[in-house]
C-alpha cells in the first residue's frame, strides 16, 4: 500500500492535547521568598539560605514565571523536563526547562536552574526574548497561516507544473501574454519545485519528507546516493514509513508533533522528526527571531545528527549538532572471580608498563551486579529469543554486561550484537596473548587482528572502570549515565555503551556518539597505522577515557535528555578539553610530570595536540587569548586550551590539599554508606556533602559538579564560574581564591572579556590576569617549578 502523507496526519497526532499558555503560579505555592542570582558569578560572602522547606520544583517554577513575566508577550510558556534531578551528594536540585511558543518546543530555548536550600544559586537562560509569531499551533498545522512568499511560490509552481511542456512558448494560458524570462528565473531561484532537483518541496508545508531528504542529500558522504536522491526524489519520499508518536502517558502532556520515519536513505535506524521552533539571528544582529523547523535525529554509520531544517521551502539546514565527538533487586551470586590480563588502571599504554592479572574490581555502588551480569529483559541479544528461564539475571562469560558491550567491528558497520568478542568460559579468565610482530605493511592489519581477544578485553576492562569511577563522582542513573538496567534508581535504561574495537571504518582516530538518556552511547576505537606493528587505540587508556568523557560532559551539561549543548564553538571545544583533562589526571602521578595526549598511538612524543600539558609556559604557552589565533577555530584546538587551563588549576589545588594516590573513593559499607577513610573529609554534620580531601580528587569532583551547574551551550566563562560555584556548594567557598588564581594564570581572570561573541562562536578575546578584590591580599602561588622527572612508577587501582 502506498504511504500517504498530508497535514491531516499531523493534526490527528495532536488529538487530546492542550495548547500551551503561560501559567500563573498555583495558589498552593509556598509563600517563601526566592532569592535569585542572575549570573554564575560568585559573591565572596557565599550563599544565604532562604526557606529550606520550599520544594525545589516550586522554587524553579516561581523563578521561571518571574523570568517570563519580564517578557510581556502572549504565547510564551515552558515545561519542566522530566530529566530534572537532585544530586544525592551535594543536595543541589538541577531543574531543566524547555521554552514553548504557541505550544511548540523552542529547540534552543533552554533554562537550567540550580537550587539548594530554597535558593537559586545559579542559572543559565537561552529563552527567546522577542515577540513570538502570532500564529497558533492550530493555524500552523492546518495551513491557515502561510508566508506570503510561500503562497506566491506555490501558485507559481502550480502554474509551471501545468505548463511544464510549453516553457519555450512562455505564454500564460487564457491571456497569451508572455512570461518575462527574469520572472521564470526568479521562480527557479527562489521557489522550490518538486521537479527541479535538488530543491525538494511539496505543496503541503507539513510534509517533512522533502525537508528530510534535503538533509540526507547534504549529509550522506555517498556522492552516488546524493545524486540518486536528486534524480529519484519522489521514489525515496514515497518509500518512507511514517509512524506518529504520542505522549498521552507522559506526565508532561504537551503539543508535540512528532514521528518516527523508516526507510530513510543512508540511515541505520528510524529517524525521529519533531516540529519545533529554533532561534536564528535577526537582521539587525542584536537579537534572534524564531523560525519553524523540523528537528531530525538521524543515526548514520559514522554520524548521529540532531538537525534543524526549515519547514517552509526551499528547505534550508538551519543548524546541525553531531552527537559523535571525533527498588530492591536480587543481585546475582558470583561463584567465580573474573580475571583479566590487561594493562592495569593507571598504566596509560604499552610504553608505560606491563600487563598484569587484574580481578573484576567492580564497585558495589556503581555496578552492584558486577560487570558480566545483565537482566534478561534488558539484554539486546535476547530480544528476539523465546526464553524458557525465569531467572532475572543472565551471567555472561564474554565482554558483555550491564555497562558495556565490547566487541570487534572490523567491517565498520552499525551491527554489534553478533560481532566477535572473547569468551573466557566458565573459568572467567580473560588471559590472552599479546605479542604483535613487525611485518610488511600489507600484512600489518592481519597481524593486529590476531590479538583481538586482548584488545577487546582491555576495552571492556577500561570502560567498566571509567563507568564506576564517574559514578562515584556523581554520574549516576538520574544524571544520565550509561547502563542497560538502572536498579530502580531513576533515569532511563537500555543505554549501555556499545564499544567497538579495531573499528574498520578508519584509522588513527576514535569517537563517541552521545544520544539522549535511554539510547545507547556508541564508541569506536581504531587501529593506528603510525608504526608497524600497528598500534591499537584500545590499549591507550587516555584515548578511551577521553571518548567516554564525551558521554559524561554531554549528558551532564543541560540535562540527560538534551544532547545538543556541546555542539560547536567554545562549548564544543570544552567537550574535547574535559576528555583530555580527565584522561591526563587519571594517568598522573604524585611526582609531577608533563603529559602528551595520544603519544603512543600516534608514535609521536608530543602526541596529537599542539602542546604537551604542562605548568611551564615555555612548554605550553596556551592562554585564553590563544583561541583568537589562526588554527584555533576547531573544537580540538579549543579543547586543548581549556584542558591546559584546568591542568594549571588542578595543580594549584594539589599544592594546597596534597595528592591522592587513588582516585577511587573507598568501598561502601554493607548498608551503602561510604566511609571517609583517607579519601573524604570527616564530618559530623548531618546532610553535609562528601568532600574529597586531596587536590586531584577534589578537582575531578568540582569539574563534574560544575558540568551539572553550567548552562546549555556554555562558554569558558560559564564553565569557570560553574566550577567556582561547585566549590561554593561543596566546601562553602574554601577554594575561592585558589581557583580564581589558577584560572587567572592562563588569562581567565575576572578582567578577561570577549567582544562580539554570539551563541554560534566568534568574538575577540582579551586575557584577564586579575583576581577578585578579596583575593588580592593573599600570597600569590610560587612560579611553577621545572617538572621533576623522577619516579615514573604508575599507581594501581586499589581493589575492593
From TrEMBL:
Keyword annotations: Hydrolase, Metal-binding, Metalloprotease, Protease, Secreted, Signal, Zinc, Zymogen
GO cellular component: extracellular space
Annotated signal sequence range: 1-20
Region (Disordered): 759-800
Pfam families: FTP, Peptidase_M36
Amino-acid positions noted as binding Zn(2+) in the UniProt annotation, renumbered to this chain: 326, 546, 550, 576
The EC number(s) this enzyme carries: 3.4.24.-
Compartments in which it is found: Secreted
Main location class: secreted
InterPro entries, sorted: FTP_domain, Fungal_virulence_M36, Peptidase_M36, Peptidase_M4/M1_CTD_sf
Major enzyme class: hydrolase
One annotated GO biological process: proteolysis
Cofactor(s) listed in the protein's UniProt record: Zn(2+)
Active site: 547
Regions of compositional bias (Basic and acidic residues) in chain numbering: 782-791
Cofactor binding note of this UniProt entry: Binds 1 zinc ion per subunit.
Keyword Transcription regulation: no
Domain FTP: residue ranges: 79-127
Any one GO MF annotation of this record: metalloendopeptidase activity
Record family assignment: Belongs to the peptidase M36 family.
PANTHER family recorded: EXTRACELLULAR METALLOPROTEINASE MEP
Protein name listed in UniProt: Extracellular metalloproteinase
Species per Swiss-Prot/TrEMBL record: Coprinellus micaceus
Amino acid at each position: 500500500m502506498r504511504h500517504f502523507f498530508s497535514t491531516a496526519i499531523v493534526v490527528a497526532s495532536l488529538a487530546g492535547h492542550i495548547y500551551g499558555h503561560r501559567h500563573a503560579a498555583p495558589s498552593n505555592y509556598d509563600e517563601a521568598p526566592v532569592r535569585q542570582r542572575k549570573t554564575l558569578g560568585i559573591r565572596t560572602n557565599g550563599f544565604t539560605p532562604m526557606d529550606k522547606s520550599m520544594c525545589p520544583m516550586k522554587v524553579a517554577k516561581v523563578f521561571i514565571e518571574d523570568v517570563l513575566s519580564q517578557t510581556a508577550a502572549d504565547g510564551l510558556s515552558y515545561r519542566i523536563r522530566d530529566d530534572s534531578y537532585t544530586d544525592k551528594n551535594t543536595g543541589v536540585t538541577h531543574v531543566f526547562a524547555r521554552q514553548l511558543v504557541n505550544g511548540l518546543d523552542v529547540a534552543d530555548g533552554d533554562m537550567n536552574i540550580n537550587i539548594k536550600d530554597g535558593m537559586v544559586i545559579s542559572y543559565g537562560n537561552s529563552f527567546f526574548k522577542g515577540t513570538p509569531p502570532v500564529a497558533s499551533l492550530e493555524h500552523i498545522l492546518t495551513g491557515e497561516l502561510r508566508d506570503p512568499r510561500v503562497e506566491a511560490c506555490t501558485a507559481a509552481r502550480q502554474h509551471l507544473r501545468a505548463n511544464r511542456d510549453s516553457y519555450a512558448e512562455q505564454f500564460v494560458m487564457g491571456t497569451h501574454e508572455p512570461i518575462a524570462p527574469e520572472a521564470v528565473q526568479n521562480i527557479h531561484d527562489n521557489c522550490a519545485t518538486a521537479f527541479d532537483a535538488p530543491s525538494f518541496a511539496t505543496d503541503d508545508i507539513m510534509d517533512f519528507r522533502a525537508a528530510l531528504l534535503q538533509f540526507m542529500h547534504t549529509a550522506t558522504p555517498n556522492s552516488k546516493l546524493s545524486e540518486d536522491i536528486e534524480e529519484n526524489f519522489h521514489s525515496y519520499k514515497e518509500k518512507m514509513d511514517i509512524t506518529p508518536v504520542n505522549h498521552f502517558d507522559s506526565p508532561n502532556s504537551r503539543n508535540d508533533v512528532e514521528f518516527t520515519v523508516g526507510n530513510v536513505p543512508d540511515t541505520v535506524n528510524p529517524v525521529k522528526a519533531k516540529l519545533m521552533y529554533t532561534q536564528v539571528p535577526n537582521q539587525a544582529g542584536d537579537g534572534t527571531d524564531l523560525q519553524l523547523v523540523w528537528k531530525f535525529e538521524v543515526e548514520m554509520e559514522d554520524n548521529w545528527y540532531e538537525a534543524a531544517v526549515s519547514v517552509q521551502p526551499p528547505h534550508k539546514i538551519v543548524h546541525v549538532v553531531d552527537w559523535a565527538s571525533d527498588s530492591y533487586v536480587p543481585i546475582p551470586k558470583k561463584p567465580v572471580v573474573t580475571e583479566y590480563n590487561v594493562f592495569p588502571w593507571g598504566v596509560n599504554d604499552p610504553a608505560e608498563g606491563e600487563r598484569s592479572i587484574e580481578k573484576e574490581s567492580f564497585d558495589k555502588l556503581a555496578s552492584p551486579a558486577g560487570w558480566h551480569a545483565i537482566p534478561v529483559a534488558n539484554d539486546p541479544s535476547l530480544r528476539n529469543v523465546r526464553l524458557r528461564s525465569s531467572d532475572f539475571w543472565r551471567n555472561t562469560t564474554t565482554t558483555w554486561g550491564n555497562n558495556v558491550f565490547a566487541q570487534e567491528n572490523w567491517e565498520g558497520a552499525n551491527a554489534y550484537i553478533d560481532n566477535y568478542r572473547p569468551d573466557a568460559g566458565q573459568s572467567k579468565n580473560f588471559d590472552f596473548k599479546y605479542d604483535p610482530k613487525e611485518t610488511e605493511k600489507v600484512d600489518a592489519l592481519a597481524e593486529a587482528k590476531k590479538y583481538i581477544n586482548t584488545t577487546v578485553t582491555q576495552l571492556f576492562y577500561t570502560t567498566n572502570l571509567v563507568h564506576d569511577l564517574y559514578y562515584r563522582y556523581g554520574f549516576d542513573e538520574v544524571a544520565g549515565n550509561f547502563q542497560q538496567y538502572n536498579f530502580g534508581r531513576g533515569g532511563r535504561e537500555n543505554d549501555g555503551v556499545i564499544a567497538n574495537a579495531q573499528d574498520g571504518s578508519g584509522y588513527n582516530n576514535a569517537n563517541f556518539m552521545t544520544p539522549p538518556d535511554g539510547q545507547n552511547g556508541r564508541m569506536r576505537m581504531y587501529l593506528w597505522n603510525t608504526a608497524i606493528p600497528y598500534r591499537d587505540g584500545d590499549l591507550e587508556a587516555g584515548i578511551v577515557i577521553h571518548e567516554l568523557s564525551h558521554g559524561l560532559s554531554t549528558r551532564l551539561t543541560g540535562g540527560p535528555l538534551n544532547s545538543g549543548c556541546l555542539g560547536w564553538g567554545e562549548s564544543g571545544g570544552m567537550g574535547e578539553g574535559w576528555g583530555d583533562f580527565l584522561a591526563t589526571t587519571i594517568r598522573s602521578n604524585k611526582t609531577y610530570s608533563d603529559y602528551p595526549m595520544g603519544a603512543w598511538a600516534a608514535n609521536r612524543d608530543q602526541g596529537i595536540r599542539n602542546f604537551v600539558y604542562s605548568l611551564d609556559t615555555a612548554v605550553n604557552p596556551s592562554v585564553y587569548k590563544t583561541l583568537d589565533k589562526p588554527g584555533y577555530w576547531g573544537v580540538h584546538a579549543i579543547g586543548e586550551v581549556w584542558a591546559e587551563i584546568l591542568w594549571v588549576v588542578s595543580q594549584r589545588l594539589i599544592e594546597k590539599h596534597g595528592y591522592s594516590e587513588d582516585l577511587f573513593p573507598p568501598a561502601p559499607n554493607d548498608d551503602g554508606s561510604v566511609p571517609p577513610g583517607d579519601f573524604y573529609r570527616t564530618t559530623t554534620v548531618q546532610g553535609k556533602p562528601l568532600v574529597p580531601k586531596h587536590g586531584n580528587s577534589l578537582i575531578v569532583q568540582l569539574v563534574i559538579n560544575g558540568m551539572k551547574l553550567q548552562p546549555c551551550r556554555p562558554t569558558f566563562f560559564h564553565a569557570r564560574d560553574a566550577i567556582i560555584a561547585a566549590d561554593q556548594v561543596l566546601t562553602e567557598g574554601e577554594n575561592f581564591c585558589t581557583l580564581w588564581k589558577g584560572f587567572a594564570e592562563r588569562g581567565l581572570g575576572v578582567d578577561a572579556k570577549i567582544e562580539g561573541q554570539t551563541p554560534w562562536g566568534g568574538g575577540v578575546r582579551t586575557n584577564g590576569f586579575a583576581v577578585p578584590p578579596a583575593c588580592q591580599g593573599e600570597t600569590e602561588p610560587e612560579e611553577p617549578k621545572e617538572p621533576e622527572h623522577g619516579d615514573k612508577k604508575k599507581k594501581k587501582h586499589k581493589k575492593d
